[in-house]
Amino acid sequence: MDDSTTGAQRLRNLRTRLLSQAAMQADRRVNEELARADARKWHFAVLATLDEFGAASQAELSDRTRIYRSDLVAVINELTARGQVDRAPDPADRRRNLITLTQAGRRQLRELDKVLAEVEEEVLAPLSPVERKQLTDLLTVLVEHHGQPM
To answer: Taking the model in full, what pTM does it have?
Structure first.
């Protein structure tokens, strides 16, 4: 394919456009593979957060995952129905619920970790380990600069 059929030069060199296209491709592959595992990105976010930080209130989970509280309720309902999390009144404050990760949730998280590692390997296949580290560092700088701490 010659340059005349690949789009305008200014589009091919616009870094924000390239970043957006790469993100859309990666997001599409992540969503496809999570769907095959009967999961969604928010499921992974909640399970990973509970695994790392332990039991949490819905408000704490919302803050840590950046999932709106109203959306988080639906996610917790789905995970509870699957037996991957438990929701019970917090013994320290009966007005709020405490969400805990179950053994089934830990198993699902391990499976999702594998799925996401495979997708990441596929998406980043053209990059060397050094380039992958550089990409991670650069993306982290951009995300943090724009006010979204990791």
So the answer is: 0.86
